[in-house]
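Table 4 source record.
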Amino acid sequence: MSLSALERHGTATSAKLAEDLLHLLEEYYFDLNPDITIYNSALNAWAKAAKETSDVQSSLASAQKADKLLCSLLGRDQEESSTFPQPTEISFLMVVNAWANAASCALSAGKSSDGKIAAKHAEELLRKLQKQTLRTSIATIACYGAVIRTWASLGHPEQAQAVLEEMVEMPGNLPLDLIHFNAVLDAWARNLASSATDVDMTMARLAGLQDLLTKMAGGVGHQSYNVEPDTSSFNHVIRACYSPWSYSKALGDESNRQNALDIAYDAYLMMSQDYNSSHRPSAHTYAHMFKAIACLLPSAQTDQVAGPEKYDFCKTIFHACCREGHLSKSSVWTLRKMFSSENFAELLLSEMDHPANMDKEKLLSISEENLLASLPKEWSRHGRKVKALNRGRR
């Protein structure tokens, strides 16, 4: 069986056979001067073996084998370097991917400590890569991206963002992959939803996310990154803004909540005011904005009736949501919970041009599950297609 066939097989056994074949070439056919692509095939075989198994220890062992093989190449002395090829950026990428696959396997098995070990090994490879006299290429960017996504998936946004900031400072002005930025934004939103306890730190992190998004969007007077945000980028920031308060209502005072809402609304305005962009608001955007308003704008203290500021703000967002056809069950349920029956009915009726067949009494008699279907179809022409936002109550 050829080395390339073993590479494709994706098992630890085939990866070991590939490496054994490589060592036979080194020992008995050294005069052939094996190309680095042969070594990369063996490295990739180990990376695939780390991916294809569900056993965490087997996955970690495969990544370790890839790492050891790469280190053996890096450790050749000057005399041997004339015989053995030097690793390339692709070589490093194969091994970084092996550790990333091991981290993913550990995460799937609920063994986050093993995932963290794999992520640390992957980042250590970046440090070794930085010391090499290699050109900055797409493969180099991919190495950084794999480490970023690994830290982000494990719920470590600080480490992920630190590597991201290193990546954007790399020379060459190479195009950056948006998925790496979105991974960091999503990781922060998840982190703030589950662990925000210090209001000053929370506000600093939200300001940092706003700055990152502005740099991605190329805001006036700001450094611009070589990447354009999409709808998900903005949605992650809006979600991050209200996530801490969905976790702890007592976090900070009203001014902190207002500042968080301002960041969310600024992100929404950046989306909605650019009609030719790829980051127009979606059904998810409006679902997040209604939740942001619910969490961040206080209700009146009497009778649990929302204050006029909350109602007017929602009315503005609701009008745009219906006009663009992004209303969903999730948004309707958030609005219903936010307002009194009277205000909720008024909000919906205010958007109807000719509500001849609908009044407050009839509107409020419709069950939550069936309410969206009873509203004008054009309001939800896009939103009702998003399954995640239209599931039934559990």
